[in-house]
Amino acid sequence: MLLSNNSISFLRMLSIVLLLCHGVALDNVFAQSDFISSQYMNSQLTINPAYAGVRNAFSVQALSRQQWMGLKDAPTTYAVNVHSPLNKRMASLGASVLSYQNGPIQQNEFTAMYSYLLRLNHHLFVSMGVSAQINHYNVGLNALEVIEDNDPSFSQDFENGFKPNFGAGVFLFSPRFFVGFSMPQILSNKLSIEETGSVVLEQFRSAYFTFGYAFDLGKNVSLKPSFLARLRQNTSNAIDVNLQLMYKNMFWVGASYRFNQTFASLLNVQVSKTMAICYSYDFSIAKELRFGGGSHEVSLMIDSNSFIKRNRDRRFNRKKVTKSDEEKGVQSIRYF
């Protein structure tokens, strides 16, 4: 039986993803100080390149996270994610810019993503994605206040340069559930002191698994549990459990629990058909992690169809619909 062009393209993408993941499986998986959003269910592009185009719109998310309020030089993170399907195609492109500051450590990264979508049936899709990333690190010790002014350990900055990376992922979704697996940073980059070559900072690798489901409690009310696991070897894992209550696809309230680490409250408001605002506040429940106050996270999400052409092949239902029903039909998991 001859394969269609879509099937051939998907098999090629699947082969690339399996090769990338296989290369990681042969080596150690180390701990990583990577960024996990309390609103991970809305910002999965930062951890899974296969999420590019899944919202079936030209999507933009701007995010700001301020940790441990009241503590000097506490971690701050800013991120902008953009992704969109290509017109009349099953392929999508995406890009992410992230800036992270924690005391003397500054990290900036730019990631480009490509994904390909395959329909499994009328209500089920699988997306395969790959990404290429450039990281810039700077660890400035000269500006730190130290007890001894001539302490040689703080007399010079660490290596300041660019490091490449790449990733891969898969995302399976329907109108009711999603399952994702990804390795967004496969290479383990290292920073070292220029004179001695001693490793002082290392970008470690992690594997992510996400899952979510929606239950109808009534005509206008849905319950949406979700789950995220960041898997690590030889160190601690991060496991998040989230529960949200949604009313008329316009208003979400919920809570999130990271095992033995933090608890968060969440609020999402769909301001208009194309714009949503999300806010979360989390605080530590582990004694060893209680620094300063809680953490605030705010994000703005925009989903617009003005810049892309509608592609019926990307819809959950292929049946013929009227023009008035076209706007009502479910096109993506954005209101999942």
Using brief descriptors, characterize the structure shown.
336 residues; Porin; globular; 17 strands; two-stranded antiparallel ribbon; 2 helices; mainly beta; single chain
CATH architecture: Beta Barrel
Percent of residues in β-strands = over 45%
Helix content: under 10%
Rg to the nearest angstrom? 21 Å
**Overall mean pLDDT score?**
77
Number of strands: 17
Question: How many separate domains make up the residues?
Answer: 1
Number of helices: 2
List the secondary-structure elements in sequence, H or E: HEEEEEEEEEEEEEEEEEH
CATH topology category name: Porin
Strands ordered across the widest β-sheet: 1-2-3-4-5-6-7-10-12-13-14-15-16-17
Q: Supply the CATH class.
A: Mainly Beta
Structural class, please?
Answer: mainly beta
Q: State the low-pLDDT regions, or none.
A: 6-11, 13-33, 325-330
CATH superfamily: monomeric porin ompg
Describe the global form: globular
Terminus-to-terminus distance:
36 Å
Question: What does the largest sheet look like?
Answer: 14 strands, antiparallel, barrel
In short:
This protein is mainly beta and 336 residues long. Helix content is 7%, strand content 48%. It has one domain: Beta Barrel (Porin), CATH 2.40.160.
What this model shows, in words?
With 336 residues, the protein is mainly β. The protein has a single domain, classed as Porin, CATH 2.40.160.40. Helices cover 7% and strands 48% of the residues. It contains 2 helices and 17 strands. Strands 1-2-3-4-5-6-7-10-12-13-14-15-16-17 form a 14-stranded antiparallel barrel. The longest helix is centred in the N-terminal third of the chain and has 21 residues. The protein is globular and about 55 Å long. About 10% of the residues have low confidence.
